[in-house]
Structures are given as C-alpha cells and as structure tokens.
Amino acid sequence: MQSKAKTVKEYLAGLPEDRRAAIQAVRKVILKNLDKGYEEGIQYGMIGYYVPHKLYPAGYHCDPKQPLPFANLASQKNHMAVYLMCTYISRDHEEWFRKEWDKIGRKLDMGKSCIRFRKLEDLPLEVIGKAIASVSVKELIGYYESNIKTMGKKKV
C-alpha cells in the first residue's frame, strides 16, 4: 500500500507505533551500511534508497523521471518489506543473499526483490546490512546496465 507521504519523516509519522519502531530499526541498519552515493527519499510511495540523477542521469528505464532504485523499505497491508533491487538483477547476489539467510535458520519469505516480514525479530538485520553494504553505486549501475542490454533476450 503506497503512502502519500512526501518525506521520510512524514512516512514514519503515518505508521502505527509497532510498525514505526520496526521500520526505523531497519532504516538505521540500511543507513549505516549504505554506500555514500545513494540517497534516501520517498520513491513509489515508500522509503527509497536510489542512485540520484546527478550520478545516473538516465534514471530508471520504467520511468526515467525516477532515479535508479537500489532498495526500498515499506509497511504494507499485511506485512513489512525490504526490497533489494540487487537480488533481482544479479543472480550471483541473489544466491549469496539466500545462502546468508539460510545460515540463520529462519524461513525466507521472498518475492523477486522483496523480503517480507511481520515483526522485526523475523528479519536478520545483520544479513540486511551485509546485503546493503555489498553493492556500491558503481556496482548497481553495472548490474543494471548489463540487464538492460539483455532484456528480451533468452537467458541460458
């Protein structure tokens, strides 16, 4: 469910207390591990971490007015979620992420890039931190451009 908030502060203020505490804890881990080139703001109605147009003027191919997304953090209707673009556009990164998650012995509830959780205790913050820290702006742009070139081509 997309928020109408215009700022991260507004987004957080609009959450119920239990969700706000969980989202703030995850946000703290993301900000601590985020490469300096990324920026935080509201993107697609949730907290977003992205490559700003000043570093990647082409923006996101689906909507070039949007900066290239890296991660998002959201409170949805039935769960909270961390969205990691790097697990979606890099098979190697997705495999690494799944192996790291398996080490903690918890069930992974994951879509293409979304890691769903109902309470903070369900989310291993150390794995999220490592995932965020493991992809620099330069690496994300490389993954992204490599995928753009192969879109529509059959993968072997």
Short summary:
Helices cover 42% and strands 18% of the residues. It is α+β, with helices and mostly antiparallel strands and 156 residues long.
What does this structure look like?
- The chain is α+β, with helices and mostly antiparallel strands.
- The protein has one domain (8-150): Aspartate Aminotransferase, domain 1 (Alpha-Beta Complex).
- The chain contains six helices and five strands, in the order ααββββααβαα.
- It has a five-stranded antiparallel β-sheet.
- A hairpin with a 4-residue loop joins strand 3 (68-75) and strand 4 (80-84).
- Helix 2 runs parallel beside helix 5.
How is this fold's topology laid out?
Blueprint: H1 8-13, H2 17-33, E1 39-43, E2 46-51, E3 68-75, E4 80-84, H3 85-89, H4 91-104, E5 114-117, H5 125-133, H6 137-150
Antiparallel strand pairs: 1-2, 2-3, 3-4, 4-5
Helix pairs in contact: 2-5
The description of the largest β-sheet is: 5 strands, antiparallel
Fraction in helix: 40-55%
Number of DSSP strands? 5
**3D shape:** globular
